[in-house]
Amino acid sequence: MVKEIERAGIPVVHVCTVVPISLTVGANRIVPAVAIPYPLGDPNMEAADEKKLRRKLVEKSLAALQTPVSEQTVFEK
Amino acid sequence: MSKLRVVHYINQFYGGIGGEEHAGHKPECREGVVGPGMAINAAFGEAAEIVGTVICGDSYFNENVEEATKAIIAMVTNLQPDVFVAGPAFNAGRYGMACAAVAKAVQAELGITVATAMYEENPGVDSFRRDVYILKTGDSAAAMRTAAPALAAFTVKLAKGEAVTPEADGYFPRGIRKNKFVEDTGAKRAVDMLLQKINSEPFSTEYAMPTFDNVAPSAPVADISKATIALVTSGGIVPKNNPDRIESSSASKYGAYSITGVNDLTEATYETAHGGYDPVCANIDSDRVLPVDVLRDLEAEGKIGKLFETFYSTVGNGTSVANSKGFAADFTQQLLSAGVDAVILTST
User: Fold this and answer.
1) Which residue on chain B is closest to A64 by alpha carbon?
2) Which of chain A's termini has less CB crowding within 10 Å, N or C?
3) CA of B320: how far to CAs of A14, A39, B139, B314, in Å?
């Protein structure tokens, strides 16, 4: 799905936990996530802290969307 | 000749530990055969014997690759095997990634014969087929009856150092070229092939070109504070009770859902339709997969222009590449005509 969106010329960031799969699939902007069942959260955290964590990941994704890339790029933690 | 010592790798499901709720299971080692190891061991006959089985949860492995690999290598080393076999993993993505990654690590660390098996769309194939022998299987455990003896026979053949080819033995080509002597010169073979082509006769190339389907990165968003951002997920987030009945695996459709006026995904209003991962966390708070709450905050603060009023969702579990492409090609038209500037796509 990532590739089809990008093919249309819309920049897309893939937020996912298993980065090697994303690289194989062909995403160009990749933001590593927390865990498979909760990529943008952590049930072990207090709700407020969890939301902060999610916000950080979303802000990182937005930053990735504003960054020019020439090849597959993983925006590390 | 004494029997080859084999160590077998399987996941928590085939290890009989449990389903998704146990996918976080740390590596453990058991003596002898477990689960599908029985069928593989039976097929080995007098040639080989499974002396130990390593079991690891699929999520644990993929979320802790280095740590898990280290622990598994130690367990395998301890059993002093001649051969290492993993799977078969069929179309289970995380399991396939684990089987192939572990096989690659064992091959590198112990220098022994390794083999695994899975379905062609398993991401483990494209990620690791150049590194290790991966035998082709069907897409579900229904193919175990044929996959187990095939994997056993293939493994013994490899261990004996017999010649194998992708065509004769049914493994995914590793991209290795071997020199061999043939009667005709390259020029004659090339002309023969050309004549066959002109005459519409079947012919096969001696060097298949890889097909790359990489898409060039799009230009970045110039001003995110004015941009319309859309959310897409393969994590199966749907309105409560899954109105479109998106399948929990091998999805045949995607859903388009309005989030106009929705500021937070709650347990009462949204859930995941995705099978293959433990849905508890996503069902309690679907923002953990699809971050609507945070994007609404950012929208209100003027950090982004607008959150697009529709999100698109399907289930990535075992869903074919062809279906996924079709879904995305379809909803991307809607994104384009609505003037969406960028997409955040989340996967579980």
Assistant:
1) B220
2) C
3) 19, 22, 10, 12
Residue B212 has pLDDT above 90, yes or no: no
pLDDT in tens, B15-72: 999 998 999 999 999 999 999 999 999 999 999 999 999 999 999 999 999 999 999 9
pLDDT for position A76: 85
Q: What is the pLDDT of residues B287-301, one digit of tens each?
A: 999 999 999 999 999
pLDDT digits (tens, 9 = 90+) for A24-54: 889 999 999 999 999 999 999 999 999 999 9
Structure tokens at B265: 């995904």
Distance from CA of A65 to the nearest CA of B (A): 5
Angle, helices A47-65 vs B292-300, to 10°: value is 70
**d(CA A2, nearest CA chain B) in Å:** 7
Residue B59 in contact with residue A37, Cβ under 8 Å? yes
CB distance from A30 to chain B under 8 Å?
no
Helix (H, G, I), strand (E, B) or coil at B182: coil
Q: How would you classify residue A9: left for phi > 0, otherwise alpha for psi between -120 and 50, otherwise beta?
A: left
Helix, strand, coil percentages, rounded to 5, for chain A = 40, 15, 45
Q: Which of A36, A55, A66 sits opposite B220 (nearest CB)?
A: A66
Residue that has been written with the tokens 């085939």 in this structure: B14
Distances (CA, A) of B59 to A46, B24, B33, B51, B176: 23, 5, 23, 25, 32
The burial of B138, by beta-carbon neighbours within 10 Å (0-12 exposed, 13-18 middle, 19 or more buried), is given as: middle
pTM more than 0.80: no
Q: Does residue B291 belong to the interface with chain A, where contact is any CB pair within 8 Å?
A: yes
- Average pLDDT score over residue span B73-96: 97
CA distances from B199 to A41, B194, B196 (A): 61, 9, 5
In degrees and rounded to multiples of 5, residue A51 shows phi and psi of: -65, -35
User: What was the ipTM of the complex prediction?
Assistant: 0.97
